[in-house]
Amino acid sequence: MSLHELTAHALHEKLKAREISAQELTEAVYERIAEVEPHVKGYLTLTKDIALEQASRADAGFQNGDEMPPLAGIPIAIKDVICTKGVRTTCGSKILENFVPPYNATVMTKLHEQGIVMVGKTNMDEFAMGSSTENSAYQITHNPWDLKAIPGGSSGGSAAVVAANTAICSLGSDTGGSIRQPAALCGVVGMKPTYGRVSRYGLVAFASSLDQIGPFTKDVTDCALLLNAICGSDAMDATSVDVPVPDFTQALINDVEGLKIGVPKEYFTPALDTEIADSVYAAIAVLEGLGATVEEVSLPHTEYAIATYYIIAPAEASANLARYDGVRYGYRTENPEALISMYKKTRSEGFGEEVKRRIMLGTFALSAGYQDAYYKKAQKVRTLIKSDFDAAFEKVDVIATPTSPTPAFKIGERTADPLQMYLSDVMTTPASHAGLPGISLPCGLVKSGLPIGLQLLGAPFAEENVLRVAYTFEQNTEHHRQKPQIQTNGDV
Amino acid sequence: MATITVDGVRHVANLARLEFNDEETAQFTEQLARILEYIGKLNELETDDVPPTSHIHPHQIFILGSEEGARHVAKQDTVKPSYPIEEVLANAPEPEDGYFGVPRVVDRG
Q1: CA distance linking residue A243 with residue A257, whole number of Å
Q2: I need a surface site. Which of A233, A279, A331, B69 has the fewest CB within 10 A?
Q3: Looking at the predicted complex, does its ipTM rise above 0.85?
Q4: Is residue B50 in a domain?
Q5: Which residues of A fall within a CB distance of 8 Å from B38?
Q6: Does the model's pTM come out above 0.90?
Q7: Under CATH, what is the fold of the domain A3-252?
Q8: Interfacial B residues in 42-81 facing A (CB < 8 Å)
Q9: Among A380, A359, A354, A378, which residue's Cα sits nearest to residue A315?
Q10: Which helix (H) or strand (E) element contains residue A29?
């Protein structure tokens, strides 16, 4: 296999044994980028100069025989919603086209302490609002499995670059499914940790009570390694939780004997693609065959999760995005006449349509006379959704569902109908409301050749259960070995 | 739950400091009305006695008086250096004499 095809843990062994250098590895990844990136378009910014410098620093450490962290010298891509000191961070928006953060997000500080190689910043739906990455103000990212299909969203760039081997792994962010859904649609592993596990400092805020950073990787082992690197409480984020962070690699146990897996009947509706349902049921049967106990559970408020989400997330977004007013950073309208009209013109020219739609929806839901009927109502239903999960986790250790009701859809297929696009998140938003850890991992392909994701959810801070079940499934199946053949002969 | 009218969209746009032409206003009215109609399904649920969830780990930010809450929330009130003014102003559209420049808001009289 070529270097860019390998996992971080396999590459670490080669780096440690000095079979390869981080420099060679980095060059291999940029060669791969030169080959397929014009077709995939997963990156908004490439940081090759920084990457090569970081690679040579890692090489110096390996040559010295230093004890090097597992991610030292590993080429990693970063979603463009995470602040990178000195490197443009656009959030996929024209309003931040020239924004260069003066500081690093806490996750970046942690990754740099590990000695990673930063490949570049990945494309995304503007301000992480979307399920297809088509809402980027810059470019459409193409699914490596079918270049005419979307990669999912909002972290579509971060998912696509891992699937395309133009990064070894990446970071994304998940508010209502923005890591898990694109991971499923691109056939890679993606995990949203428990809300509060990872510092949000330097993650540009969308919906603060839901946003969480997490990894995209080629396998579950790499997922555990990235979690080890990024988790932990942080004085700079009052919502990060001060609980001990385990060594997540200790959860990579190839055994599910005695674990209880719940299957929520509400997720297997007629709207679910039958090939996906079959594949997920088959995956659950594999786990049962390996010794897990499988039982049906009920999450009765599942059908209300989308309606709840599309009040809470836009409401929080409308407050968070008030900061983009053309005063302190970002775009400002040309020749502003007065302050208020400057705000209005700056925002109307700088934001894309979906962002404006959500700001409008959120502002309405918080406006005088409607706040109780909408925002407070949604917060109450959020309690009911969370209570469903609390009750289910009294009985089971992990909940297994499909990640997405359909495989990747075609570019342009759902852009005309915002509500149809919102319903793409039906399998992922419930766990977001409850702040749960959730992983999506490959569990097969539909007949047309597109990947299917298995979603595994755990109780708050029970990432280890999720990783153990995911690892066991991966070790006993071959789905994660299926890779896309990118059609590089077509039009760019 | 109420629906939203063209006038309602104009009012909300002003609150959100956004502006739309007539065509955009009509489109947003139609789309928001459809989304709000879907959201209306929440009214199927009786929630009078259900407490709202604003944060998934509420003990952390709301019970400041408790020992546990304090452990999570309170940090030492120590003076730390701020970012240099040049760095902070580097992203500003119109920095002026160490300040953020904006259009005049007060008449000279």
Answers
A1: 27
A2: B69
A3: yes
A4: no
A5: 306-307, 310, 419
A6: yes
A7: Amidase signature (AS) enzymes (3.90.1300)
A8: 42-45, 47, 50-57, 60-61, 71-73, 75
A9: A359
A10: helix A22-40
